[in-house]
Amino acid sequence: MAHIGGFTDGLDATEETQKICDEVKDQVQERTKKTYEEFRAIQYRKQIVAGANYIIKVYVGGFSYLCVKVYQHLDGVCEVIDVQDHKKDDTIIPF
């Protein structure tokens, strides 16, 4: 459930969040200086602004996860804002 002006609670990833991950994968690899064979959206939180902010937990292989903060412009273009290392059981917390 969304809080006014805030992020939704954690939700299971959807086809839409996977498409966002596919779009920003190169940006994430550039920021982290790593190459990811796997890049699968697991969970996400969303905030509606002039566009949308997403924080997406992404499985990147082995025991590794990332939290990727993405801004989706009103025209649909996605931009990575930040990337953090994450663990499987970590809760998605806005950053």
Task: Annotate the secondary structure layout.
Elements: E1 11-12, H1 15-32, E2 40-49, E3 51-59, E4 65-72, E5 78-86
Antiparallel strand pairs: 1-2, 2-3, 3-4, 4-5
Structure keywords:
globular, 95 residues, 5-stranded antiparallel sheet, Nuclear Transport Factor 2, Chain: A, 19% helix, 40% strand, alpha+beta
Tell me what the structure shows:
One of its GO terms (molecular function) is cysteine-type endopeptidase inhibitor activity. Belongs to the cystatin family. It comes from Parambassis ranga. Residues 2-95 form the Cystatin domain. It is found in: Cytoplasm. By secondary structure, the protein is α+β, with helices and mostly antiparallel strands. It has a single domain, classed as Nuclear Transport Factor 2, Chain: A. Helices cover 19% and strands 40% of the residues. The protein has 1 helix and 5 strands. The protein has one helix at 15-32, and strands spanning 11-12, 40-49, 51-59, 65-72, 78-86. Strands 1-2-3-4-5 form a 5-stranded antiparallel sheet, covered by helices on one side. β2 (40-49) and β3 (51-59) form a beta hairpin. The longest helix is centred in the N-terminal third of the chain and has 18 residues, at 15-32. It is globular and about 35 Å long. The protein starts with 10 loop residues before the first strand and ends in a 9-residue tail after the last strand. The model has no long low-confidence stretch (mean pLDDT 93).
